[in-house]
């Protein structure tokens, strides 16, 4: 006569239900699901602003804005940050240590800060030629879209810093999984950025 395996709860106590099967969710699985939801919300937000941009562009007071050349520099920095973070996640899979991928993580931080700096440079360059936020509706949308994207980059940078710090303190395991999640978010931001550049350039 075979005995049914005992089922325990997360607290360690036996379940009162003999057929219960309870397994607590892994923190990484919860984080991955939350990241997909976050990217879905961000994507929907930019889609709505794109629709508003297209509608507003059709009015008579719209004056196209010549995008500053500094955007090329910021784009290069964002691409490089995605590449360095991707290699950091790959190296962390083979050598699960912050020390092993310290160079790639430092490059990711430097390239991301370079992206934000180049964005500020582009905005200042426009202000210097009297193309500020309120110059015309096209300018307002340029600052709104690029500024909103920069805010999400800064948010990702804060999360990247928190994960790195917690791994360094021994509060998180599976370094490569957390870095893969960060890399996924960085690639998503790169896609959004390239979409915005195409939208601004083609219109």
Task: Tell me what the structure shows.
The protein contains 5 helices and no strands. By secondary structure, the chain is mostly helical. Mean pLDDT is 83; it is low at 1-15.
Helix content: over 70%
Number of helices: 5
Q: How do the SSEs run, as a string of H and E?
A: HHHHH
For the largest beta-sheet, the strand count, sense and barrel status come to: none
- Rg value: 23 Å
Topology:
Elements: H1 27-57, H2 70-94, H3 102-128, H4 137-168, H5 175-202
Helix pairs in contact: 1-4, 1-5, 2-3, 2-5, 3-4, 4-5
Essential attributes:
elongated; mainly alpha; 203 residues; 5 helices; 0% strand
Condensed summary:
The chain has 203 residues and is mainly α. It has helices spanning 27-57, 70-94, 102-128, 137-168, 175-202.
């Amino acid at each position: 006569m075979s005995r049914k395996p005992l089922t325990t709860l997360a607290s360690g106590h036996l379940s009162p239900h003999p057929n219960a099967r309870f397994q607590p969710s892994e923190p990484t699985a919860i984080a991955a699901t939350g990241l997909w939801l976050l990217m879905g919300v961000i994507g929907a937000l930019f889609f709505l602003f794109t629709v508003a941009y297209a509608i507003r562009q059709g009015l008579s007071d719209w004056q196209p804005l010549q995008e500053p050349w500094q955007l090329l520099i910021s784009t290069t920095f964002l691409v490089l940050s995605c590449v360095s973070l991707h290699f950091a996640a790959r190296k962390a899979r083979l050598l699960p240590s912050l020390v092993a991928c310290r160079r790639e993580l430092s490059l990711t931080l430097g390239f991301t800060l370079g992206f934000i700096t180049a964005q500020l440079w582009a905005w200042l360059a426009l202000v210097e030629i009297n193309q500020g936020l309120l110059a015309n509706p096209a300018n307002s949308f340029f600052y709104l879209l690029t500024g909103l994207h920069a805010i999400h980059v800064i948010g990702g940078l804060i999360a990247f810093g928190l994960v790195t710090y917690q791994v360094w303190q021994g509060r998180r395991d599976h370094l490569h999984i957390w870095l893969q999640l960060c890399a996924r978010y960085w690639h998503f931001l790169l896609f959004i950025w390239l979409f915005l550049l195409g939208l601004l350039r083609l219109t």
